[in-house]
Amino acid sequence: MPRFIAKLPHDVITGAPLKYRRDGDGYNLYSVGWNEKDDSGKSGTKSAPASEDGDWVWQMPAR
């Protein structure tokens, strides 16, 4: 890690480390989002966008 980044980023909502969840051969990195609740890496729905409900999710597919 030090070779690429001096310090791991943290969740801007909670101050805790970002959440990490395996997804097949890839993984998801996520923040709890505005609702301050861990929704297990589930993004908001169309009726409640991620900015209002659900987690903020960055999907990292397998290489």
Can you lay out the helices and strands and say which pair or pack?
Elements: E1 19-23, E2 26-31, E3 56-60
Antiparallel strand pairs: 1-2, 2-3
Which keywords apply here?
mainly beta; 63 residues; 25% strand; flat; 3 strands
- Tell me the number of helical segments per DSSP (H or I, 4 or more residues long): 0
What is the CA-atom radius of gyration, in angstroms? 13 Å
Q: Which residues sit in consecutive blocks of at least 5 with pLDDT less than 50?
A: none
- Rounded average pLDDT: 84
The H-and-E topology, N to C, reads as EEE
Distance between the termini: 19 Å
Oligomer: single chain
Q: What profile does the largest beta sheet have?
A: 3 strands, antiparallel
Strand order across the largest sheet: 1-2-3
The overall strand count is 3
Morphology: flat
Strand content: 25-35%
Fraction in helix: under 10%
Structural class: mainly beta
